[in-house]
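We modelled the chain as a single entity of 306 amino acids. Its sequence is:
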Amino acid sequence: MTETLVLAPSGQDNDVVISAPATTPRNVRTEIAYYGEPGSPAPLYITDEKTRLKNVNKFHPATVYDVRGSGVEHTLDVSGIQFVKHESKLSVHEFDDNERIKAAYYAEVEGVLKNVTGASKVKIFHHVVKDVATEKEEKAIPAELEGPVRGTHIDQSYDYAPEVVKKNLPDESERLLKSRFQIINVWRPIKTIFKDPFAVLDARTVLEEELVRVKVIYPTHEFESVNVRGPSEERKEKEGGEGHKWWYMSQQSPEDVLCLKMFDSKTDGRARRVPHSSFTDPEFEDRDARMSIEVRALVFHEDDVE
């Protein structure tokens, strides 16, 4: 079928476009992992694979809806997610080289984010590459100590987000924290995704009371992230649905880049955070493991003073 591409807003470069392929949606009935313990969690000490898996998740039946052909337009300020079309100049093998990623790919991502958001400044502070054999990242922490693949979460809590600015831009943080800032992840397949697709939760459908702050302590640093409880049966009965609305892109290709908002300092009703998780697609369980890169960035709007 013909693919419909919506150009970026006027005044922005037209090499970045919102992706709205005109295909039949392939919705998936699956299970999503949520935080399953009562009350607030104790600090999570991550020292080895066993402690990483210490969190007890509860799996809820869920439908993950395909953005392809859905007719639903997603934007960062409304649902907290936005798919864009962008072709990287890096080859598949170059994503195996952290220094090449920092030297070339960071600039590409910065351009995407400036075009999509209109930001005045972008500071990339982290990336993770997942491939068939292993996971590579820029920090000196073993890959097996990274956060869970299965488990609905948000990377940073509201309170911890300013600390990310202070840590990565100490000389400018006082000034930058006076204006609007965001933390946005840019997630790209390195090869077309079949197994373990990446799902994002529409920010409008998750309640604040479903968010559970958790302190995570690694051998080299600590931070505060957010786990998510599944929607209650009472909520689902009252609303007449599943409570949460999950989205993914079927057979997401390297040119189908997903931007998802982890934090926004604006509190005027715009989307502020997007829980996310991988999920099992039964049809493709026998396919190769997922290959992807996720870049995390601070995004500043210096003319939008709080």
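As a brief sanity check on the tokenised model: The radius of gyration is 19 Å. The first strand starts at residue 3 and ends at 7.
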